[in-house]
Each structure stands twice: as C-alpha cells, then as structure tokens.
## 1
Amino acid sequence: MEIRFLGHAAFELTHEGVTVLIDPFLTGNPKAAVSADELAADAILVTHGHGDHVGDTVAIAKRTGAAVLAIVEVAEEFRNEGLENVHDPNLGGTVVFGWGSAKLVPAWHTSTTPKGTVSTPAGLIVEFGGSTIYHVGDTALFGDLELIGRRHAIDVALIPIGGHYTMDRHDAVEAARMIGARQVIPCHYDTFPPIVADVQAFRADVENSTASEVIVLAPGERHAI
Ligand code: NI
Ligand code: MN
C-alpha cells in the first residue's frame, strides 16, 4: 500500500489499482501537490465538515463516481449536492467496502460546513491493503486516543501538528505516544501562517520519547508501507 501526501490534511492511499482519498482539499490549498481534476478515486473519506477537509470532494466524486463517506449530517449535505453513492455512518460505525473498511472514531474539534451544516468531527480508521491507517482528523489532544490505539493496531497514524486549529507539535508527541502507531506522518502544518510548525523538532521529540518512527512527507511525496 502506498500513501501520498497531497498537502495539508489530504492523503491518497493506493493499492492494487484502488485509490482512496482522505480529506481532498486541493482547490485553494496553497500546499496542494496536485489539482483536483488529476486525481483518480474509488472512495473519498471525509473527517469533518470544514472547508479545508471537505475540499473538492463533491467535484471529484461527480467526475469519478467514487463512493463518499462522512458522518451522517455531512453525508446528507453531499446527497443534497447530487451525490448518490454516499455512506453515512456515525461515530463508532464501520462501513465495509470491496477494498477494505473505514470507521469513524471521536475527535475533539468543531465541524460546521461552509454551507452551514452543523455536525460532529471524527477521525478515521482505514483498513486497506493489509494495513491500518488512522487519520486523527483535526483533533485536540484527548485521552481516548490511547483507547483507540489499544483497540486498533495502527500501522500509520496521520497526526496534525500545526496548532491553532488542532493540537500543536508538543501535544502531538503525547498523541503519538498514546496511539502507539508503528509510523507517524505529520500533517496540517505550514499551510497557512497560524499553523507553521517545526516538523523536524516534532520528529526528534517523537523518536526520542516513543517507539514510533516519524515519516516526514513533503506535499506530493509517497511512502510505501
Ligand atoms: Ni477543521
Ligand atoms: Mn482543518
């Protein structure tokens, strides 16, 4: 399985010809590695309703016919936008696809869409290509990250480190310790001035105080698991 960082909190997962996108915010993303119309997609998974996560979901899904998964209120907004292949779990729910599965887990944040749909933010546990990926979403540090890490053997955790809108790089070290993933890929930093972060300091802090390996990806870079 291959993970490509698309910039901000957007990732592309690929395995055996299947492409899964998470939070595909490309249009208006100053760090976008590609434009939305270049991406293939079999499924698009969305952590919460903020514009920098919903991003180009509707346009990509309309062009590709990809299945879309988001928490029920955001999913209903997608249906109202004309999408038909929409999955609408709530926190704790797992949706099984032909390629794997996606589960919504709690995240401490807010989640009103640009169109005004009030909803609850989430993280995503994705089983795909024999690996378990945990996209933590835009969360603050909270204790149940440890519970989630105990419940699921996480291969790669995608963790925000930019602060201001999410946990900062210091809290993210504790998050990495609690989750206990084999590898950590930092995200949600350096996109906008309020979320500039020292990613190499984060890497050193995690690798000096946890068993996790940190993989720093520049937008566009890939990591094979
Ligand atoms: Ni957000
Ligand atoms: Mn965000």
Note: The chain has a mean pLDDT of 98.
## 2
Amino acid sequence: MQQLDAIVIGAGFGGLYALHHLRDNAGLSVKVFDGAGGVGGTWWFNRYPGARVDAPPTPFYAYTFSQELVDEWEWTETQSSQADVLAYLEFVSDRLDLHKDIQLNTVVTDARYDEANQRWTIETDGGETVSARFLICAMGALFVAHTPDYPGIDDFAGDTHHTGRWPHEPVSFDGKRVGVSGTGSSGVQSIPEIAKEADHVTVFQRTPQYALPARNKPLDPALLAKYREDWPALDQSMRRRGGWPFELNRLKARDFTPEERHARYEEMWALGGMYLLIDSYVGVLVDAELNNEISEFVKGKIRDTVDDAETARKLEPDYHLGTKRLILDNGYFETFNRNNVELVDLRNDPIERFTTTSVITKDAEHPIDMLVLATGFDAVSGSMLRLNPKGRNGVSLKDVWEERFGNYLGLAVEGFPNMFMIHGPTSPGVLFTMPKGGELQVDWIESCMRHLDKEGIGAIEPTAEAEDAWVEEVNTLADRSLYPLAKSWYTGANIPGKPRQFLAHLAGSHYFDRLDEVAQQGFPGFVLEKRRTD
Ligand code: NAP
C-alpha cells in the first residue's frame, strides 16, 4: 500500500495549493485525487454558458502567494470567464509541476481513520488503497449538485443538464424550447446566453433575485501592470479586508440626506460589481432600514429595465439585498424584454409534474425540448457527507452530522483526527475570496503539521467543548446580521430536510486572525495525542 504524508481530495484551487505548499515548501509526500478528468474543481464542472467569476474583479480571484504567477499570467477581462480560470489553473499546475502528483478520473470511495497507526486509509473506485498521516478534504463548497424531486422529472425525454455538471461537448440550444429551473448565480449567468440561441426559453423562478450589473470589460493592461507592482500590498489588503483588495469607504448613511444617498447608489450601480453592497455605506447587511433603502433602489432598476410591468413585478425580490448570495449579471433583466423569453412564477404557479415533453404547472403546460437545472448544490457540507469519512471507532461523519455540522474553526471535526477541511462548514467560504481563503487555511494546516512534528504528536482533533463554543460563536455572528432572515444555501434552507445552521463565518479577516492566534498559542481547543509509531 502506498504510504504518504498527506492525501488531498480535490484538484481545485484549494487542493492544488495544498499539494504545492505541503510538497514543495514543507517537503511532505502528497498525492491529490480527483474524480474529474482535469484539474480545476468547480471550474472544471461549471462550464455552462455565461459562467464567470462574480467577485472580486480580476486578477484578485487567483492565487496570491507567488509574485511569479501574478506576473506570468495574462488576465484579459475584469470578470474572468470560466474558460480563462480553468486555463489559469492548468497553467499553474504545469508551472508548479503539480500534475505528477495528481491522479485524475479517480473517485475516493472510502476514507477510514486507523487509531492504532494514527493514519488515514483511503480507497478509490480504481481499487487502490492508499495510506497517509493526514487527510485534506478540498472537495469544494459547491460540488454536490441538487436536483429537485419533481414528480416525473426522470421521465422527461429531452436532454437535461445541471449547470454544475455541464457537458464537455458543446450544447446547442438552436431551434430548441429550453426550460431553465433556478435563478441563482448560475441561472442568472446562463439564461441571457441561452436566450440568444434558443427558440424559446421558459424560466421557472421560485425566488426572485437581486442582481447587480457586473459590467465586465477588457482588463486595461496598464492597470494589470500596476496591480502586479503593488501586489504585496494588495495581497495584505485582501487579508485585512475580508478578501477585498481595495480600501472600502466607511461612510455612515445617517450623515447624508436621502438625495445624497440616492446619488451614491447611482454611482455604485454605474461602477458595477459588488460595490453597491460592500461600499455604499457601512452596515448594509446588519441595518434593516439601510438595506431596505438600497433594496428598493435595486427594485427600481429592475422596474426601469423590464418593459412588461407584470413580468417586472414577478422579478422583484422580497428579501434583504445580499442575504442570499449576491449575483452579478450581464444583461439578466434585459433578457426578459426578448419575445422568446417567458417567466413562470412558481410561487403562484408551482410545478406539479413533468411529462416526457413538458413541465406542467398549476395553471399551464409548458412544452420544452431541453431542461437546464440551475438548481444549486447541497452546499458546504454536501461534499464532506458524500465522502462520509469514518473516524474513531468507525463512526461515520453522516452520523456525527445528522443534526448539526459540528466542527472547530471550520477546519476539523471531533472524532476525525488528522482530517482537515478546506472551505468547510463555518469557515468564511464564498464570503471571503475563495482562492485566498483556501491558501490561508492550507498555510494554517501546514503550520499545525509542523507543530505536531516538533512536539512528537501523532494525532490532533478538536475537543467537543471547542466545537460547541465555535458553532455558537459563528451563529451569534450570523444572528447579529440580516443573513439568517433569508432562505439560502448559507443556512441549508435550499435542501429539503437539511439541518438549519448558518454555514459561513461572517467575519473573514477576524476568522484568519483567530486561526493565527490558535496556532501561536499551541493549538488550544485541540487534543494532541503523542505519536505512537516512528
Ligand atoms: P443557488 O444560488 O442555490 O440557486 C439555485 C436556484 O434554484 C434558486 O433560484 C432556487 O430557488 C432554485 N431552486 C432550487 N430548488 C428548487 C426547486 N425545488 N424548485 C424550484 N426552484 C428551485 O445555486 P447556483 O445558482 O448554482 O449558485 C450557487 C452558488 O455558487 C452561488 O451562490 C455562488 O456562490 C456560486 N456561483 C458562483 C458563480 C461565479 O460566477 N463565481 C457562478 C455560479 C455560482 P430559491 O432561491 O427559492 O431556493
């Protein structure tokens, strides 16, 4: 059986950096396994039309640790396309010679902790068994695609494509009547592109969504050169500002008149991207009154954009802006002015069943030739539960997480020694820039491994008390905000039967300060077990 220091599952941003850092900087033997046919993780799978980075602007959704990588990769647009991000990750894998330690087309089917040897053993769908001291789970927060359980959905005879599992061969919408279910980021990005080609598009919308204009454009080479020059400072800035590279305004809404505030919202809207949410005034995600004002501003923009008043009314969201994952769009609302696009409001006219050729809602039958499911993911916890590792005494993660996604620091779970999660439940995840957040988590894991070696420790796992206090802390942070008021994948509300728990840490920079503190203080909250074997 192959013996390694670390097994990494997942060859996306997090897993690739884990391989590089642990192998090339820490000198460990590491192997990455991924079920996909290429590196890229989420960018390998989510190749639906219109897929783009939604925050922050290019080049900040990328690795930050290497000035060489920053200097050598030529980004071309302010909001990079899926194809560009995937090409970038392939470039990084070549440049850092990662491929030789990545095994693709290989699904890890089982992972078990062996207490006597303080090691993990994994099995793959190819029948291999591999052992390592550490198991690093970098399977992605948005990996397990969710398909609604509508009666008859499996009987539909046309092609069905989930945005999160998009085919590698080209998909033609030409001459087709396409039904799209779901209006989150994936639906909002893909619907305008599908509508350009299809005969007819029927959008099945459950919750109307806010979307801010992305205003994607070519990236000015002079600006890219400036970013490269200033990279160390911008990188530090990302660490301090919740993953955002630029200084943000600290303006207080109450210091301005309603007219001044409106003028500012217009300015932020014109700028595009996330600015309206993160840089108009302080406290948009905690102050309901302020949030309502900005939400009304965006609803006004939707009404101004959509010609048909009834359609505009159906598209108006009724939750606080930003409390479901904010969406950046490239012409989403304008798409409803096309005469080949129709909106079905599922709240008033729910789907009853599918036939071989149509979707039947309460009020009508909608004939379709193709179904696009943009219905999201069993987010954050889903990929860990799919792996379902078995920890001490053979206890499975499914059993431990039946009612609550208990863990400490979003990184480790009691009863699962030497197992670490990247972007796990209660870590900042998408609420911090993910490539940077993953790097910082991997850096912490590596510092933890160094500490264990120095102290002769063979196994580390959190205490139950540390987990309880941590989950409580993350919940308290969420409860101070408007986030829990919305039904979103942050809370698990998108998956029927999933335990409700706020799954993201809302203060990314403080989260990473906390990780630093824990490392500096010798890992309080963890049980350290002496090494049993040489
Ligand atoms: P999502 O945000 O969870 O949206 C899923 C959509 O499907 C929602 O409109 C949801 O309605 C709908 N839906 C789910 N179950 C349904 C059902 N049974 N019947 C009818 N409608 C149903 O998923 P996503 O759009 O794939 O995005 C997930 C996350 O991935 C994003 O929030 C973002 O973090 C990330 N993402 C990023 C990018 C990028 O550009 N970087 C692009 C795509 C996705 P409800 O709202 O009512 O639940």
Note: The pocket of NAP is lined by residues 51-54, 142, 148, 163, 181-187, 189, 206-207, 325, 346, 374-377, 430, 489, 494 (CB under 6 Å).
